[in-house]
Amino acid sequence: MTRTVVVTGASGFIGSHLASALTGKGYDVRAMTRHPDHYDGAGTPVRGDVFDPGSVAEALHGADAAYYLVHSLDSDDFEDKDATAARTFAAAAADAGLERIVYLGGLGADDGELSAHLRSRRAVERILQDGPVPVTALRAAVVIGAGGISHDEAVRLALHR
Are 120 and 132 in contact (CB under 8 A)? Predict the structure, then answer.
């Protein structure tokens, strides 16, 4: 039986590579995106907006697991938005009966010295873990690769030294 996995953030750098790898391994991948008509990556695009509980519920319905790769760094109030999105997702995942959520956060010690970005990543991790669906939390350092925002910024900085 083919396992169904939802990849949030499938149009992003990590999500696009993950969706491709999972489909290559035979998983039925639902690429959750706010704009399914514009998605051209691996998997089947499904509409889902983490600020719209109904759309998240639809995207997760019948799925076995989900990868949570969402962040709101493009907003001044990203910490509040990230927390709201995580609560919405955790509730929908519980209602859908998911077996697992895999979450990608960031490195850093919980010592009160985290940047706002890493504080937000850690808060999202805790919100997801507070729900009834088991969470596997992965913590990565900066991810740099061709086509990614970090890579493009690193290249820009190197060229403008």
Answer: no
Burial of 69 (0-12, 13-18, 19+ CB in 10 A): buried
Q: How many residues does the chain have?
A: 161
Burial zone of 48 (CB within 10 Å; 0-12 exposed, 13-18 middle, 19+ buried): buried
User: Among all chains, which residue has been given the structure tokens 């939390």?
Assistant: 137
Q: What is the pLDDT of residues 38-67, one digit of tens each?
A: 999 999 999 999 999 999 999 999 999 999
For 17-125, list the strands marked E by DSSP.
28-33, 44-47, 65-68, 100-106
Confidence of residue 141 (pLDDT cuts 50, 70, 90): confident
The two tokens of residue 86 are 């995580």
Give the Cβ contact number of residue 43 at 10 Å.
24
Q: How far apart are the first and last CA of the chain?
A: 54
- The tens digit of pLDDT for each residue in 122-131 reads 999 999 999 9
Sequence-separated (6 or more) residues with CB below 8 Å from residue 59: 6, 30, 32, 46, 47, 48
CA dihedral sign of residues 139, 140, 142, 146: negative
